[in-house]
Amino acid sequence: MNGDAAVSFDDDLMALYPRAQLVVRVTPRQIFPNCPRYIHALALVERSVYVPDEGHAPPVPGWKRADWARDVLPAGDPARETEDA
Fold it and tell me: pLDDT digits over 30-49, tens only?
């Protein structure tokens, strides 16, 4: 698939995703068919603890504590609250 993506910090979809920081909307321009021969059927076995949900604050991923990532975290990112932890 080829297309265009737009990042928005005030998209109406933000209300549907607790703790979302932005929404990325993708407009497909070209979609290429693929032989389903090697595409496996998928099923949700277990929801990741990192998925935000009402009443659940996801843990801070370890990569956000890495030196290479800390200085580029956006303001308000929950990882900033644990910088000194």
Answer: 999 888 888 888 898 998 99
SS (H, E, C) 24-62: EEEEEEECCCCCHHHCCCCCCCCCCCCCCECCECCCCCH
Distance between CA 21 and CA 52 in Å, rounded?
11
Which amino acid type is present at position 74?
P
> If you search the block for the tokens 């595409």, which residue do you land on?
39
Which residue in 33, 10, 42, 39 sits closest to 23, CA to CA? 10
- Smallest CA-to-CA distance from 50 within 38, 40, 63 is with 63
Considering the entire predicted model, what is its pTM? 0.52
Would you state the pLDDT for residue 85? Answer: 44
